[in-house]
């Protein structure tokens, strides 16, 4: 066909073809070199340590890989602009495995790993992070959890694989997520986050129980305040709070803007894997994410997670069909919604879709049920990985090399394994005032397994706070003192476990160089406070090593609770012993209608502290204020006896103060010795660390082995029964040795003859029985049926076989018996217990 040009000239089609070829040849395309996937260098020798499931695929696994390939092709056809799915990476041996079969739900026998917090913390601490290379590409390999736990090194997919396996074993509805995250999440950079130990704990506010309305109640007094004024005050208060909140929010936004990380060139492209825990199981109220590198939980609306490509667990695989333009904030995790998630295996429990109600489908219900019964789906193959096993030593070691350091915003957290350090330190949290971590503000140390029951020690502002658990000799619970002056007679506060542990009911002691205050609870004498005021020591010339005199006591103040068994005018509320003035002040409890309390002052005579001395009474020694003027005044005898009792009480109070000072010194001395020793408590069940139990166990094993060997020697000793007949003597005489030899040979000879006779007896018995059956056959041959004849012939064949075997055994026994006899005789000659040379030496 010719083409007509506008000017009327014809142009040949061949010329157009040539021109088109020239134009196409001018277009040059340069292809980028293809990067071959890198497979880990695993030698053939390394394959031997893996089971057969690592080196090859079963028929069912090959079938599921065919399903995976079909699923991948459909996904690529529908979503050409999205990255490929993480479906069938290579394992340790370079074999393709489906990611769902790499999960192995496991529940380990450790209490902490039954909850998601313990599982996440263990995985984050036990493994060392390895970044994806390059960060925007999926990894080519996914090793089994057992291999990763053995190497303690893995990327985000390895972390998530192990964590999801532990969570599934613990009963959580957990999934591995393949998606995109920020640079800080992918690199486990927590330098802009607050340390979890410093975050305030969420307090659950309990609603106050409303009192039940009563029919007869006293009406509250009428409120005479102006409602307008109350309303205006509430408005001003609300405006002030809003203004303060606004300023605080602006300040937080300004600080957040300053601390904002620099822009990332790969934002939205960094591939990351984490774990999704859906609500419903294990009392989980709502969905949340777990970051495997740090073990922290995040809500799905967190801006740190930018998108999701797919999720999977041990039963199925789902591809995300939702738009991730706004991250995971508006994403639905209802995996049964086929418009948002595309599953791979239709037979999974998570993919059962409810049939919508429709009138036209009701008639076809029976047909659908029949089709569903006939329809079969491919289920997930069994996992190919070895069981996840974590020994007790591995679990207790937790971190690689037993220690790990994490940097947070203005904080640094150091973790150590149990028994790694001599002082039992397990965590050290250092808090700083700046982001550069140079201005130290506070140090908090946590301890475990200490003999002195110390749990935490906090250094802050020049003060040291030590907390203890129950079990110390003097029931010390907390000790706060100055780091610059840890000795006695300095500023300190001691708190004690007072419930059922201290007889004196002491719960708190506060001390300064000049004062000491003690608080009591649940005492029989109703004492709840004792305050002591000390004076300055007098300077005396004494040796440097000699202990100085105790601090002089100036005043002791004791306060008591109300004793309902006594009247208020006789129940003491406060008694003050002014020792340097020889004065005692007593204040009684106030009675209900009165606004003041009765008081009485005593002035001690000069000889009040002399033993056996008599006190001279005078009215000038007391001063009384009585609230009730109409009440009868106390008699002089009662006042005198009260004075004597108070003098004794004063001496007891002074002794109690001195005992408290001695107790403080003893506690400080014990703490000094404990810090120098730093002994750790080891359980009797810990056979690896408990040296005493270990030695005892080894000694028992040694004794058991010796007993076993002795019994074996006894069982193998051919002379043992003959030695027992003569009483197992330590030394054997020549006569006994000859007798033992003769008896042993005679016994063997008799046993050989008995065995031959037994074989001959059986031979004769079988021959006699056969002869009888033959005679019986000759007599009844004519009347026998075919079955009887067949039974007779079978018996004859078996009997002849047995007779032949017995004949062979007897002939062989006759041949071997002399050899056995000679062997025993040779053995007896060589036995050191019966050797002739032994008796020759003894005679010489």
Automatic annotation (TrEMBL):
The keyword Cytoplasm applies. InterPro entries: CEPT76/DRC7_peptidase-like_dom, DRC7/lobo, DRC7_C, MORN_DRC7, Papain-like_cys_pep_sf. Residues 690-717 form a coiled coil. Residues 400-683 form the Dynein regulatory complex subunit 7 MORN domain. Residues 239-259 are annotated as: Disordered. Residues 731-836 form the Dynein regulatory complex subunit 7 C-terminal domain. One of its GO terms (cellular component) is motile cilium. SUPFAM superfamilies: Cysteine proteinases. Residues 272-344 form the CEP76/DRC7 peptidase-like domain. GO terms for biological process: cell differentiation; flagellated sperm motility; spermatogenesis. It is found in: Cytoplasm, Cytoskeleton, Flagellum axoneme. The keyword Coiled coil applies. Keywords: Cell projection, Cilium, Coiled coil, Cytoplasm, Cytoskeleton, Differentiation, Flagellum, Spermatogenesis. Belongs to the DRC7 family. PANTHER family: DYNEIN REGULATORY COMPLEX SUBUNIT 7. This is Dynein regulatory complex subunit 7.
């Amino acid at each position: 066909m010719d083409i007509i040009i506008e000017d009327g000239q014809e142009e040949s089609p061949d010329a157009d073809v040539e021109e088109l070829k020239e134009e196409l040849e001018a277009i040059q395309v340069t292809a980028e070199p293809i990067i071959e996937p890198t497979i880990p260098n695993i030698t053939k020798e390394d394959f031997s340590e893996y089971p057969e499931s690592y080196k090859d695929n079963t028929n069912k696994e090959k079938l599921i890989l065919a399903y995976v390939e079909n699923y991948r092709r459909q996904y690529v056809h529908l979503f050409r602009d999205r990255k490929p799915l993480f479906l069938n990476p290579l394992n340790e041996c370079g074999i393709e495995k489906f990611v769902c079969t790499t999960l192995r739900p496991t529940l380990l026998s450790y209490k902490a790993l039954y909850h998601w917090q313990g599982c996440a913390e263990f995985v984050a601490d036990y493994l060392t992070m390895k970044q994806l290379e390059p960060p925007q590409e999926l990894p080519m390999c996914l090793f089994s959890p057992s291999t990763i736990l053995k190497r303690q090194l893995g990327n985000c997919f390895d972390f998530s694989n192990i964590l999801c396996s532990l969570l599934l074993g613990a009963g959580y509805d957990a999934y591995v997520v393949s998606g995109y995250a920020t640079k800080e999440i992918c690199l486990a950079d927590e330098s802009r986050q607050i340390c979890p130990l410093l975050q305030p704990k969420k307090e659950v506010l309990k609603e106050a129980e409303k009192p039940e309305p009563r029919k007869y109640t006293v009406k509250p007094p009428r409120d005479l305040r102006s409602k307008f004024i109350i309303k205006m005050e509430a408005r001003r208060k609300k405006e002030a709070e809003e203004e303060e909140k606004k300023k605080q929010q602006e300040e937080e936004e300004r600080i957040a803007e300053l601390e904002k990380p620099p822009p990332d060139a790969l934002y939205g492209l960094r591939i990351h894997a984490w774990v999704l825990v859906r609500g419903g199981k294990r009392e989980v109220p709502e969905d949340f994410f777990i970051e495997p590198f740090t073990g922290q939980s995040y809500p799905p609306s967190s801006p740190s997670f930018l998108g999701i490509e797919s999720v999977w667990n041990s039963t199925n695989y789902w591809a995300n069909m939702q738009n991730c333009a706004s991250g995971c904030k508006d994403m639905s995790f209802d995996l049964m919604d086929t418009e948002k998630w595309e599953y791979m295996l239709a037979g999974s429990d998570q993919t059962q879709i409810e049939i919508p109600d429709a009138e036209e489908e009701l008639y076809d219900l029976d047909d659908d049920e029949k089709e569903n019964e006939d329809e079969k789906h491919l289920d997930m193959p069994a996992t190919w990985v070895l069981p996840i096993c974590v020994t007790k030593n591995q679990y207790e070691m937790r971190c690689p090399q037993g220690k790990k350091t994490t940097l947070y915003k203005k904080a640094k957290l150091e973790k150590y394994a149990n028994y790694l350090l001599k002082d039992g330190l397990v965590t050290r949290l250092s808090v700083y005032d700046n982001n550069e971590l140079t201005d130290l503000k506070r140090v908090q140390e946590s301890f475990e397994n200490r003999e002195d029951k110390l749990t935490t020690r906090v250094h802050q502002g020049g003060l040291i706070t030590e907390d203890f658990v129950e079990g110390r000799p003097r029931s010390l619970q907390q000790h706060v003192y100055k780091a610059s002056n840890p000795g006695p007679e300095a500023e300190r506060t001691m708190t004690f476990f007072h419930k059922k542990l201290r007889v004196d009911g002491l719960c708190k002691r506060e001390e300064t160089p000049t004062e000491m205050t003690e608080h009591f609870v649940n005492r029989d004498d109703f004492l709840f406070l004792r305050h002591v005021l000390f004076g300055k020591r007098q300077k005396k010339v004494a040796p440097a090593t000699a202990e100085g005199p105790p601090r002089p006591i100036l005043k002791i103040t004791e306060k008591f609770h109300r004793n309902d068994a006594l009247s208020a005018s006789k129940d003491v509320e406060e008694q003050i012993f002014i020792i340097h003035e020889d004065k005692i002040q007593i204040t009684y409890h106030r009675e209900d209608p009165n606004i003041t309390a009765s008081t009485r002052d005593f002035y001690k005579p000069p000889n009040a502290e002399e033993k056996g001395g008599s006190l001279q009474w005078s009215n000038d020694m007391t001063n009384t204020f009585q609230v009730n003027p109409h009440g009868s005044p106390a008699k002089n005898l009662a006042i005198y006896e009260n004075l004597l009792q108070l003098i004794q009480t004063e001496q007891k109070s002074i002794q109690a103060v001195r005992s408290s000072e001695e107790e403080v010194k003893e506690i400080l001395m014990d703490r000094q010795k404990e810090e120098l020793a730093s002994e750790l408590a080891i359980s009797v069940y810990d056979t690896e660390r408990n040296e005493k139990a270990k030695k005892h166990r080894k000694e028992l094993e040694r004794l058991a082995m010796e007993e076993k060997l002795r019994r074996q020697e006894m069982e193998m000793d051919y002379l043992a029964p003959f030695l027992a007949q003569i009483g197992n003597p330590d030394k054997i005489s020549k006569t006994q040795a000859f007798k033992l030899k003769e008896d042993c040979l005679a016994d063997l000879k008799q046993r050989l003859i008995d065995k031959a006779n037994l074989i001959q007896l059986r031979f004769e018995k079988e021959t006699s029985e056969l002869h009888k059956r033959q005679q019986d056959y000759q007599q009844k041959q004519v009347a026998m049926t075919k079955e009887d004849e067949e039974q007779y012939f079978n018996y004859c064949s078996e009997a002849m076989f047995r007779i032949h075997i017995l004949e062979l055994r007897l002939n062989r026994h006759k041949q071997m018996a002399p050899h056995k006899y000679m062997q025993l005789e040779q053995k007896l000659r060589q036995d050191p217990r019966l050797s002739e040379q032994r008796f020759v030496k003894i005679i010489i």
